[in-house]
Design a protein that fits this description.
446 residues, Rossmann fold, 4 domains, 20 helices, binds adenosine-5'-triphosphate, ATP-binding, phosphoprotein, Sigma-54-dependent Fis family transcriptional regulator, transcription
């Protein structure tokens, strides 16, 4: 199989191109910028680089020069817009194998690619790196995202992971708090030690201390065996307490004491056990207001919150949506033993317009269900739940600016649906942002 590195920052287009090439038997890795593409080139061997000319962190020619300077004998094909053909010709002089102008038809792409690969074969280039599968596999577990919100999140994860600080992760349900916690653990020096995740909301307060600190056989009715608590189980590793705001006041006191003294005593035991854990906690409620109301201990709050990370809602990471959709589709295909290739354009538009109250978990569930129901190569909107389809149709039906009242109501509804994001609202209403601003002013909408 031939391996292609595709470098293109238009997310929708690049996804479609990737799927198209994969359907034609190529293995494709995708990068949205030169930086990540260079990293991939260091780790893996490719038979072809297929890159856009304009990229967020530089242009395709600079990237081409970089590849040639590193003496990597990989053919490079550039994608250009019609207006950039003269630049593409310049690129050919710098050693690009070929260029192709957008919009291009599928046969053209296949032809250019197969020509480039033929040429490469005659140059006898190094074999494919055998570690590739592992690399790809490990990348699959955590999708970093490319939106501004995801970039900030990932920067914070990288910053705090190596430092032994307690981290409080804040975010709505299903945003990926546990996945972030696991990621911090894996990037820390404790990565080869245990990661123990505990849902505090699911522990009845009567047995919480036995759950956290363990017990000795016979120490209370029902204690038929010795039990190791979560603190001890996580020793030298990371303890992740989800929904920490649900701990009873009494359990908060016990937790604080264990953290301060760095030792725990199992119920019914006389011996204390020294514990060395890194604590990561998560909450989807406003812990500070719980502190103000007296429901959560302030000293514990500060102990947990040495560093806080906010995980963004999915609707605030619109640029990541297709990336995640694709990831969950891959996962669903594997779990269900299916081979669905992608999403119809309609489905992608519905995804972009929906407000995703259940965040990534909801997206994952919807895609799994749709994959199960899909009998063709592509997921169409008939296998999506009503709440997704209905929103779009509601807008399409009423999206006529006929009367002033109708217009004002439409704008208010659209703004509410996308939490006041003007760019999104303008897209939903199919008007420019400038028009939207003018109309907001005209109708005095707050
Ligand atoms: N960065 C990511 N890459 C890949 N999958 C992710 C990512 N973040 C979250 N997920 C997936 O989304 C789903 C929800 O994630 P997770 O359970 O971590 O959310 P949560 O915020 O902890 O949820 P809750 O508030 O209900 O505890 C899971 O299936 C998880 O695997």
């Amino acid at each position: 199989m031939k391996y292609i590195l595709l470098v293109e920052d238009d997310v929708t287009f690049s996804k479609m191109l990737k799927q198209f090439l994969e359907r034609h038997g190529y293995a494709v890795d995708l990068s949205y910028d030169i930086h990540k593409a260079s990293e991939l080139l260091k780790k893996q061997t490719y038979d072809l680089v297929f890159t856009d000319l304009r990229l967020p962190d530089g242009n395709g020619i600079t990237f081409l020069k970089q590849i040639k300077n590193n003496k990597q004998p990989i053919p490079v094909v550039l994608m250009t817009s019609y207006a950039e053909v003269s630049t593409a010709v310049q690129a050919m002089k710098q050693g690009a194998f070929d260029y192709i102008s957008k919009p291009f038809n599928p046969d053209e792409v296949l032809e250019v690619i197969s020509n480039a690969l033929e040429e490469k074969k005659s140059h006898q280039i190094a074999p494919v790196n055998s570690s590739r599968k592992d690399n790809i596999k490990s990348n699959l577990e955590f999708v970093e995202g490319i939106s501004a919100a995801s970039k900030t999140l990932n920067e914070y994860i990288h910053l705090v992971a190596p430092i032994n600080m307690s981290v409080l992760i804040i975010g709505e349900s299903g945003t990926g708090k546990e996945v972030v916690a696991k990621n911090i653990h894996l990037k820390s020096s404790r990565s080869d030690k245990p990661f123990i995740a505990v849902d505090c909301g699911a522990i009845p307060k009567e047995i919480a201390s036995s759950e956290f600190f363990g017990h000795k056989k016979g120490s209370f009715t029902g204690a038929t065996n010795d039990k190791i608590g979560h603190f001890e189980a996580a020793n030298f590793g990371t303890l992740f307490l989800d929904e920490v705001g649900n701990l009873s006041y009494e359990n908060q006191v016990q937790l604080l004491r264990a953290l301060q003294e760095r030792k725990v005593k199992p119920i019914g035991s006389n011996e204390e056990v020294l514990v060395d854990i890194r604590l990561i906690t998560a909450t989807n409620e406003d812990l500070l207001s719980a502190v103000e109301k007296g429901d959560f201990r302030e000293d514990l709050y500060h102990r947990l919150n040495e560093f806080s990370i906010k995980v963004p809602n999915l609707k605030d990471r619109n640029d990541d949506l297709i990336l995640y959709a694709d990831f969950f589709l891959d996962k669903a295909n594997k779990q269900l033993n299916k081979s669905v290739v992608g999403f119809s354009k309609d489905v992608l538009t519905l995804f972009q317009n929906y407000h995703w109250p259940g965040n990534l978990r909801e997206l994952s569930n919807i895609i799994k269900r749709a994959t199960l129901l899909t009998q063709t190569e592509i997921i169409h909107k008939n296998v999506l739940p009503d709440e997704l389809v209905y929103i779009k149709e509601k807008h399409m039906l009423s999206n006529k600016f006929s009367t002033k009242e109708n217009e004002k109501e439409l704008i208010i509804n659209a703004l509410q649906e996308v939490s006041n994001n003007k760019t999104q609202a303008a897209k939903l209403l199919d008007i420019t942002r400038k028009t939207l601003y003018n109309k907001i002013k005209e109708y005095n909408i707050n």
